[in-house]
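New to this. Comment on this protein:
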Amino acid sequence: MLARILLRAGDYIFVLRPLILVPVWSFYLLGARSGALAAPPGGAVRVFPALACLTLLMASAYLINQVFDRRTDALNEKGHYLTRGIFSARWVVGFAVALFFAAAWVNHTLPAAQRAAMVAALVLAMAYSLPPARLCARPFLDLLANALGYGGVAFAAGRAVFDPSLAEAARASLPWVLLVGATFLHTTILDVEGDRAAGKRTTAVAMGATRAARGAAVLALAATAAAAAQWRSTGDTLALLVTAPLAAAYARWAFARWTTPRSSAHAVQGATALVALAAAWNEPRLLAVVIPLVLIARLYYRRRFGVPYPGPADDASATA
């Protein structure tokens, strides 16, 4: 009985896909760190209300995405909550609407610069999943939406805690935008067969897995170059310490013909882990959330669905 209750509680938590919220939290906190380094010393600031708002907005968007991606999720062995009938589409939409209104309530308390970032996040997230835009099924626009959403908008929302300048946020976020683009290409490689079968034309479907992996390597190398330029101008090495090893790994997998679902899964997991560690450098409480979340997710997914999480078994795709 207790195990059944715990599994059901897990359903309500993991339908929100909290592990793919980790990059949202990480880039927001990296943005806050960037703004704090550039801003003059001052009094106490409120870092977390906007993070809560962004979390609610993105969780709402992830729920909507599951509703519109049911067919491809079934082919890719993902989206278990709808494809296996654990929740109905109507319930998922209702939950998404409730989270949206909660986010709207928090948003009205935020400064103007952060409210603008939240609107941008909402527009991108909805355009990504909903027709007629449905950017997730449009080659290269799916890549651009993810790169700007995570590496740009989430970062800018965090930086706006200390500095509302959009130009400075764009400059400081460039290495992260490029890195997210590189990592996103590997997520599309993971799903390329199911997406192609469902008629969903992602960047990897359009380019093919090998070219997509090589594109990821080029973007990761560009991210490293941008991080090096940032280091020379500001003395901040954090982005370089993250992007350089990832660029080396991405290039090795792409140009040594090692591109497989397993290597792409490692690319996504490695990038997520390194970015989270970078964010935790100034905000170690992030690890106090992420580490237990990963451990619980592994137990939950094994018991609930009989699959490993967050990584693939053998050469199967990830289950996020």
Summary: Residues 9-279+287-305 form a domain with the Farnesyl Diphosphate Synthase fold (CATH 1.10.600). The chain is about 75% helix and 0% strand. Confidence is low (pLDDT under 50) at residues 312-320. Residues 121 and 188 are 21 Å apart (CA to CA).
